[in-house]
Amino acid sequence: MPNKVVIEDRGAVRIVTINRPDQRNCVDGETALGLGRAIQAFAADDKARVLVVTGAGELSFCAGADLKNPSSLLEHELVDVAGPMGFARLDPGKPTIAAINGYCFAGGGELAAWCDVRVAADNAEFGCLSRRWGVPYTDGGTQRFARVMGTGNALYLLLTGVRISAERAFQLGFVQEVVPKGQALERALELASAMAAYPNFAGLCADRRALLFGLHRDLDAGLLLEAELVRPTLLDEELLAGLGRFAQGARDPSPRPPR
Length: 259
What we know:
Layout: E1 5-10, E2 13-18, H1 29-44, E3 50-55, E4 60-62, H2 79-82, E5 96-100, E6 103-105, H3 107-114, E7 117-121, E8 125-127, H4 141-149, H5 151-160, E9 163-165, H6 166-172, E10 177-179, H7 184-197, H8 201-214, H9 219-230, H10 237-247
Parallel strand pairs: 2-3, 3-5, 4-6, 5-7, 6-8, 7-10
Antiparallel strand pairs: 1-2, 8-9
Helix pairs in contact: 3-4, 4-5, 8-9
């Protein structure tokens, strides 16, 4: 039996793939445990800097929980640590990108929202489709959807169960980039490689943490958090070397938006 979660390293970028294409990459207990362990391993590995999450095949990123075997999602050993689908309560402390191909429904949307950045192929579709079966959201959807795209848009998706296109998800602010079919992983890897290669990676992670953990603080408290987390990285040797390259007119290595 093939692994339900496949891990691959490409330099400093780690790819985690849900490998159940015949089940539209839905998540059962075994898959959830695999996801949780993969995230924990990524967090603990200093050589792996950026995580890309995707689904096997072009039909589906993740169609949500395995509704034919729902009890397994409440029985695996990481359910209280990570959540039923294996990711909601985990934070690896480093950047994460969702490469979304095809269906991104229900818990699949929660997994995408768990990631920091979302790149979708133009054949991707989104929606809280489990609403039609009476299934609520217990893997971060009630919390992260609003943080990503605002309260009104989050409630619109959560309460109506409407099915939307990649372009509409982009308009709502859920997706950051839409690329041609078959290119979501390629683009996610391009962004991930750029992130992983930036000097002072500790500073990048500090910026990420300050933003995420400062969301619901008032401005002054958020600025204090920023100072606490980010200022210690200002004397990093890689940062000083980067400033030296800037002074010498080095080329900007930042990735360009897709055309």
